[in-house]
Each structure stands twice: as structure tokens, then as C-alpha cells.
Specification:
The chain is of the alpha/beta class. The chain has helices at 7-19, 22-31, 38-45, 49-61, 110-121, 139-147, 160-163, 175-180, 197-200, 203-220; strands spanning 65-69, 77-81, 95-97, 100-104, 126-130, 169-172, 189-191, 224-226. The strands form three sheets. A four-stranded parallel sheet has the order 5-4-6-7. Helix 3 (38-45) crosses helix 4 (49-61) and helix 6 (139-147) packs across helix 10 (203-220). The longest helix is centred in the last third of the chain and has 18 residues, at 203-220. The chain is globular, with a radius of gyration of 18 Å.
Length: 231
């Protein structure tokens, strides 16, 4: 007897099957709060490249994971979680931090928007900085923030060296910043591979970046508690 299952049921079963293996579930856990290259995932999980490629392929086929090309080192790709394929996956209370610092190369758009979003949603303080800060915040970033009820009117770019403290949780919101920080001794870092809206220079590009950042901030907020809070 053949049963014609609804397409939604089949898709859910595919996701459950993809997650029903410890290495793949551990891979997804790594991507819940940030993106990573296959090499980074392999090193963290201790998986050889051929086995890692097998697991990533199955997760891609199930629609759980997708790839994006690095805007920094174009030979790299980054894996990111497709949150629409999952529900109620975000763990809470995973990290304690006195402050979250959002970093991109120029500190003129993505990191400024992310910090503004964070301040609206979390009691944990936030700041933003750049590895090579621009002279001003991008006008379209200011306009995008204003459209969504945020203000970047007084925001100014700052260099990471002038902002970062030893216990900060760093969230690199661009590939260039993430790759520039690879040799940094600061280990409390996450990576969000958010495409640079300034490279396109349109209102739509900035709105897409804003929505991507808003989704990621919403996921991270419940996972970060103030450093002074009891465990």
C-alpha cells in the first residue's frame, strides 16, 4: 500500500533524517549562532574532509544548510543555517558576556545596524567597531535604521583596537573582518556571513542586510546572558 504523504510532511521527515546522526547534529549546533567555513567546522568537530563533505551534502539536500562565497577570500565558502527549515532549535543561556561587539571592516553599515538592533532587544550592552573604519556611517544604513525605528544619527565608525575589551563577545558580521581576525588571540567570537549592502548600494540591498541581521540578533539574544548573572 502506497501512501501519498503531504509535501510538508515529507520535507520535515527529510530534515529529521538529516539531523538523526551525531556529527550532523553537532554541525548544526555550530551554525545556530554563527556561520563557519567547512574547514573551520572540520577542525572543531575533528572530522576528515571526505566525511565532512558527506555530512554537509546531506544537510544541504535536506535544506538545513546552505553555502555562500566569501566576500574576502573568494576561494572560501561559508556554511550557514537555513532557519526556516528548523523550529525551536535555538538554545538559551549558552554564553555569558559583559558586552557584545559587532565588527565589520568599515563599521559603516552592518555592524552599526547589528548593534542598534541588539540594544533594542537585550539588556547586555553592545558596541560596534571596524578593522578598517570608514570616515562616516553609510547614509543608506542611517536611512534603513530610521525606516525600522532605529537611530544611527549620532553613530560614528571606530577602530576595533579602540573599542574591544578582553571579555567581550565579538560577532564579525562580514567575511573580511572574520578572516582578518582569524589570528587574533580573542577567542570569544562568532561569525555572521552577511553580504555587504554597500557593494550593491541600493535601498533593497540595505534592507536585505537589515532583515538578515535582525533574524540573527533575534536568535542570539536569548543565548547571551550578562556576565554577572548567576549560572
Amino acid at each position: 500500500m502506497t501512501t501519498d504523504w503531504p509535501s510538508g510532511t515529507v520535507a520535515r521527515a527529510r530534515v529529521h533524517a538529516a539531523l538523526g546522526e551525531p556529527a550532523r547534529l553537532a554541525l548544526v549546533d555550530l551554525l545556530v549562532l554563527g556561520d563557519a567555513s567547512p574547514g573551520e567546522v572540520g577542525r572543531k568537530l575533528g572530522l576528515p574532509s571526505n566525511l565532512l563533505a558527506h555530512h554537509v551534502k546531506l544537510l544541504e539536500q535536506a535544506g538545513v544548510v546552505e553555502r555562500s562565497r566569501s566576500e574576502g577570500d573568494h576561494r572560501r565558502t561559508y556554511l550557514r543555517l537555513r532557519t526556516s527549515a528548523l523550529a525551536d532549535l535555538v538554545p538559551t543561556g549558552l554564553r555569558q558576556a559583559p558586552r557584545v561587539v559587532f565588527v565589520c571592516s568599515h563599521n559603516s553599515a552592518r555592524s552599526q545596524l547589528a548593534a542598534a538592533l541588539w540594544k533594542k532587544s537585550s539588556a547586555v550592552p553592545a558596541a560596534s567597531a571596524g578593522t578598517r573604519p570608514a570616515e562616516r556611517v553609510h547614509p543608506l544604513a542611517v536611512a534603513t535604521a530610521r525606516t525600522h525605528g532605529l537611530s544611527l544619527h549620532r553613530a560614528r565608525p571606530h577602530h576595533l583596537d579602540d573599542v574591544l575589551r578582553p571579555d567581550d563577545l565579538v560577532v564579525a558580521v562580514c567575511d573580511n573582518a572574520h578572516e582578518e581576525l582569524e589570528d587574533s588571540p580573542h577567542t570569544a567570537r562568532l561569525h555572521w556571513s552577511v553580504p555587504d549592502p554597500a557593494a550593491v548600494g541600493t535601498e533593497d540591498a540595505f534592507d536585505i542586510a537589515y532583515r538578515d541581521l535582525a533574524d540573527r540578533v533575534e536568535r542570539l539574544v536569548p543565548a547571551v546572558r550578562p556576565a554577572t548573572e548567576e549560572s
